[in-house]
Amino acid sequence: MDESQAFKGSADVATDVANAPLALRGDKLVKRFGAVTALDGVSLTLGKGEILGVLGDNGAGKSTLVKILTGFHQQTGGTLSIDGQETLLRSVDHARSLGIECVYQDLALANSLSIYHNMFLNRELVRRGPFKLLDHKQMRERAAQCLDDIGVHVPSVDLPVERLSGGQRQAIAVARAVHSNAKILLLDEPLAAMGAREAGLIIDLILRLKEKGGLSIIMIMHNYAQTLDIADRVMLMQRGRVTYEQKSALTSVAELMDIVRREYRAMRATSAP
């Protein structure tokens, strides 16, 4: 497939989602850090209840895109709309107030604390009365109910996080984000450094969240095969741009790799003396 066909695929997908209810839309997003352009006119859409897989090698601009969508950075140019309203995300707290949550690779869990304490980290419940005492009973019950609702099974919510497997920790971080009433969930390399069994646990969790409805998901990924198995649609980023976009059912690992190889060859040819 030549480059014109790749962009035709992207145009067709954009047409398909244009009339669908959108959770998020970014139009020609640009981000510059001094003389470095990290994002160069990136446009994307995320339908309500959709899973979008964002693929690309290191330096493609994926992390910068995530930081804009979570309010950590503000774009240099372009516009961002959340639930149909054009919005400039001023901070991470502002993004969270609009229902945008992100689970980063480091998970931001306190390993020495219990599962239920992590579920309510910085959002602890306090008993009514003259003294501000933590309501451990309520937090235990709500944490257990939340995990049960999304099918995450742990021996006890009293267990410290440090005693959990990598897959279980990832599941707790995702559950915490969902428990925060997220409408848009960003997952930064959710399957990184996991074995097949643990990756399967997280894949099942993501698919269950989709089936429950009400949540739109963006996954930042490296693994093409896993992404095509989970996502409704994939978007390939290279050097700060979107170079390909297609429904997962209409593309393949071979096609995506071919696009990346052609870009690599073009870069080598340009840099050759």
What does this structure look like?
The protein has helices at 3-18, 62-69, 92-97, 115-119, 136-149, 166-179, 196-212, 224-230, 253-271; strands spanning 22-33, 36-47, 51-55, 77-82, 85-86, 100-103, 184-188, 216-221, 233-238, 241-247. The protein has two domains: 3-99 and 183-271, P-loop containing nucleotide triphosphate hydrolases (Rossmann fold); 109-182, no CATH class. With 273 residues, it is of the alpha/beta class. It is globular and about 70 Å long.
What would you say about this model in short?
The chain is of the alpha/beta class and 273 residues long. It has helices spanning 3-18, 62-69, 92-97, 115-119, 136-149, 166-179, 196-212, 224-230, 253-271, and strands at residues 22-33, 36-47, 51-55, 77-82, 85-86, 100-103, 184-188, 216-221, 233-238, 241-247.
Write the layout of secondary structure elements.
Blueprint: H1 3-18, E1 22-33, E2 36-47, E3 51-55, H2 62-69, E4 77-82, E5 85-86, H3 92-97, E6 100-103, H4 115-119, H5 136-149, H6 166-179, E7 184-188, H7 196-212, E8 216-221, H8 224-230, E9 233-238, E10 241-247, H9 253-271
Parallel strand pairs: 3-8, 3-9, 6-7, 7-8
Antiparallel strand pairs: 1-2, 1-4, 4-5, 9-10
Helix pairs in contact: 6-7
